Amino acid sequence: MDGGDVSEEVGSGHRSGECEALGKEISSTLGSVLKEFDSRAENLAQSQDELSLALDRLTGELDKLLEDALLPFITQHAPKISSICRRESRR
């Protein structure tokens, strides 16, 4: 083994250490990004559940109002009311 071989081995070991350090940094960064993504996705799901519950409550209240409403009111606003009911039923 001559002096050139030793310096190549040291250089190769140095590059390997740099690659390992870079890999750890990338892994750490991606881990943080994924945790943030998971947190935001969970918050989104919770918000959607809350919205769904609010829409269900409002649909129930709308149904009660329609039951108690006068016929001219229903006739006048029927297209809008039907549109709201169709949108809700798609969810």
Can you describe what's shown?
It is a single chain. With 91 residues, the protein is an all-alpha fold. The chain has one domain (3-90). Helices cover 95% and strands 0% of the residues. The protein contains two helices and no strands. The chain has helices at 3-68, 71-90. The longest helix has 66 residues, at 3-68.
Task: Give me a quick take on this structure.
Helix content is 95%, strand content 0%. The protein contains two helices and no strands. The N and C termini lie far apart (73 Å).
Averaging pLDDT over every residue, what do you get?
80
Tell me the strand percentage band.
under 5%
Radius of gyration, whole Å: 31 Å
* Total domain units: 1
Number of strands: 0
Q: Sheet bearing the most strands, described?
A: none
Regions with little confidence, pLDDT below 50 for 5+ residues: 3-7
Which class best fits the helix and strand makeup?
mainly alpha
- Principal-axis shape equals rod-shaped
Terminal-residue CA separation = 73 Å
> Helices and strands, in N-to-C order?
HH
Percent of residues in helices:
over 70%
Helix segment tally: 2
